[in-house]
Amino acid sequence: MKAILPLIIFLLLINLNQLVLATERDQALFNQGKTVYEKVCITCHNYLPPPKNAPPMVGVSGHYHQTFTDREQAVSHIANFIQQPTKAKSKLPPMAINTWGLMPPLALPLAAEEVQAVSYWVWEIYNIECTPSTKLFFCQHFQQK
Ligand code: HEC
C-alpha cells in the first residue's frame, strides 16, 4: 500500500494537469482570431454595444455561452455558421435576424485556419469580459438564465 501511494498521487497530478490544459486558453489561436475579427468582422460587428449593423460580438459570445457548455461544440457551430449562414442554424434570439437580417455570406472566403481561429476568439471573449472580476454591466444580461 505504501509503495502505491506515490503512484496514485503521480497519476492524480497528471490528470489535474490535463484538466488545466483542456481549459487553458490557446493564446496564439486567440490572437490570430482577433486579427481576423479586426480585418473582416468589425465592418458589421462592434465588440461592445452600441451595435453597428450586426449584434456586438460580446453579445454574440454571451448567447453562445447560454446555448453551449462545450467549447468544441460551440466553436464548430460558429465555424459552420460563418461559412454558410442560415436562419435554421441561428442560436441568437429571433430579434437578431428580425432587426439586422441574416448574416450575409462573407465577401471573401477565409482560410480554414482563420475560420477556426475567429470562431475560437468569438467563444473566448465572453470568458474574458464576463468573469466575476471584470464583469461588464452588459454581461449581467446573459447571466440571468
Ligand atoms: C456584412 C455584415 C457582417 C459581417 C462582415 C460579419 N457578420 Fe456576423 N452577423 C451579421 C449579422 C447581421 C448577424 C445577425 C443575424 C444572424 O444571426 O444571422 C450576424 C451574426 C453572427 C453570429 C451569430 C450567428 C447566429 O445567429 O447564431 C456569429 C457567430 C457571427 N455573426 C460571426 C461573425 C464573424 C466571426 C465574422 C467575421 C469572420 C462576421 N460575423 C462577419 C453580419 C455580419
Main attributes?
binds heme C; Cytochrome Bc1 Complex, Chain D, domain 2; 0% strand; mainly alpha; 145 residues
Count of spatially separate domains = 1
**Average pLDDT across residues?**
90
Please summarize the sheet with the most strands: none
Small molecules (ligands, ions, cofactors) in the structure: heme C
Shape: elongated
Strand content: under 5%
DSSP strand count: 0
Q: Helix and strand string, N-terminal first?
A: HHHHHHH
- Rounded Rg: 18 Å
Low-confidence stretches: none
CATH superfamily membership? Cytochrome c-like domain
Would you tell me which CATH topology applies?
A: Cytochrome Bc1 Complex, Chain D, domain 2
What is the terminal-to-terminal distance? 48 Å
What's the helical proportion of residues? 55-70%
- The helix tally amounts to 7
